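Q: I have two molecules that I believe assemble together. Could you output structure tokens for the complex as a whole instead of separate predictions?
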Amino acid sequence: MLAASDPVWQAAAEHGLIDMHVDAASDYELVIRETGHRFVNMCSCSYLGLNSHPKILQGAVDALATAKSTSLSVSATRIRPNLSADLEDELGDLWRADILVGLSCSTLTSGILPLLAGGQLAEGGPRTMVFDRFAHFNLAHVKPICADESLVLTAPHNDLDYVEDVCRKHPRVAYVADGAYSMGGALPLEGLLELQDRYGLFLYIDDSHSLSAVGEHGEGYVRSRAELNPLTMVVASLVKGFGTGGAVAMLGDRGLVRLLRRHAGPVGWSQSPDNMVLGASLASAALHRTPELGELQRRLRDNVELFDRLVPTPHAGNDFAVRVVPVGEADRAIDLSVRMFERGYYCSAVFFPIVAKGEAGLRILLRADLPSKLVTDFASSVTTESMA
Amino acid sequence: MLAASDPVWQAAAEHGLIDMHVDAASDYELVIRETGHRFVNMCSCSYLGLNSHPKILQGAVDALATAKSTSLSVSATRIRPNLSADLEDELGDLWRADILVGLSCSTLTSGILPLLAGGQLAEGGPRTMVFDRFAHFNLAHVKPICADESLVLTAPHNDLDYVEDVCRKHPRVAYVADGAYSMGGALPLEGLLELQDRYGLFLYIDDSHSLSAVGEHGEGYVRSRAELNPLTMVVASLVKGFGTGGAVAMLGDRGLVRLLRRHAGPVGWSQSPDNMVLGASLASAALHRTPELGELQRRLRDNVELFDRLVPTPHAGNDFAVRVVPVGEADRAIDLSVRMFERGYYCSAVFFPIVAKGEAGLRILLRADLPSKLVTDFASSVTTESMA
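A: Yes, here they are, computed for all two components at once.
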């Protein structure tokens, strides 16, 4: 994989398109210190612009004044700041869930999935683990650890027939997938819930790309359509739409939170979110209770709809903010990314192993905090350059 | 493992000794909000007290003013704030290394070790991976992922003969261990460097428990005794002695930094340290250049020597701040921890799987920011209660 992908990364590097170091320039622009080149980052996952919201930055500052330290530097299994307990209570109330806060989705998932595979999180013993082929890297990375505990299979993308077939052949099955996929689209939730009803299928969903952006209180795509139950667990990053850092697991049972805090590997023995992130997160949670959330979600939807009207892409019309302009070979994607960058927009060229070989493209993430004039100008640049 | 350890965690929980939620009370004390009970945390890994240093807290605040966001919410492989690049430069200069900053040691290690096992980080192809039996959880957690790439073995603790035997039988070997162990003691560095000379043994060392606390510029135990070379890599957490958050890999080659940023799994696709932590870290790096570092290290050594004079423990006299009072069975360790807590000191009961069964104990971490009077009173309490 490294041998296949490094030459393409190197080509991107030679055009200055990776490992860029930037400062903030204006509300919408970043600037490269060495060259002075200013551009708009069209690949930020901060879908609502909350990563620069003054109240959220102030939350981080306030937390330092209260906690008087960056962190307690002790295992969160043993001692946590009240900021952490308060955040779990606040988000639990907001999202109707028992909440476990962690350093990142990777941390939560690498602690939780081996327990799920080993049969510790639901009745009946070890579970056959079925990963969607497009499940995010952080999920797929844990496959070998799960394979120490039970059988691990990879399903074709969104293939309900494949999953049902495994459910027929194996007594206990867990399906591991994204809610909203990082390269666009979503999981077939209704069909999966039917399989859960019929076969007791466990669903472990990473819904990072829709948290905050979707749902009345920003609970994300899956949680806005499904309640938690003993066979459904959702994890989501707080660094994207939510605007801060760290991650949450949403659980349907307080006993599970206790069990995971003690036994889910890095949840106990690795770092936990620092006090600044906890303070920023409490401020973001508070903002999620105000009408401002709905207003930002509406602005995001407006920008996505505007872009879709101007630039047709395979995922146009869906509920999410991720669009990919298909290009074909990796070198064409890099070339297009270079020309867009010269015009003042960073959109990332995505290529193997991020997407399949021969299916490279230009990845674009819309946001609430971009003025519609900017979206219009950007769409026009995409159209011009992708035809050049 | 879960079935064996959960009853002991539960016993600790019933005594209020785990999942404590606290506020800051004074320079030395924490307080439990619900009960008002005040205590000194004798298990903080912030060995120099830098987690509450005013300059370091100010660094976090200043970074928010500069960066105007919590983070860029984009893969660090693609775009990073100058705060991150500046931190890598600063720490590289301070510690004579090429530096890769990451979210945590777990994140760095779970990205790096599979590449090392697969033969991507040094000449000659895949390597047999030998993990010390006491290597920290975050290292051992990645064994199954490494096992997809090559043979994985577990060595008895600090057993150079075992490692040499593997080197004789296998063409390429990597040894994975802690520098200073989290339960006390260190690795046999000289012997390992001899094996490196003789057999080309790769050394991958997590030196989190000695960073900042040891070395002229806080470079840690291993780096204060050994230069980097193409067969030596050190990772260390910045949340302990350094006082902030995130982690670093110290490498002997800038090309390796580039390779890891692109291909070391979660280093690219998971979160990276937030702007507040980067700002705090730049402030801590600056402090590491001043005489204050040596002064704090001296105060830490004084406190450790004072404690060692008053309470003999197996690791008394060594260079580190970790001491364990052996107790035997887990229930006795919990009982002792309960009585110390009543006296106003939190020391954690450590038991299986943190240590071997029947070898439970009371874990104590000394710090620079404890007045010597407090250390004396604490030692006297340990003596009284451990004889009770």
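A: One point stands out. Chain A touches chain B through 84 residues (CB under 8 Å).
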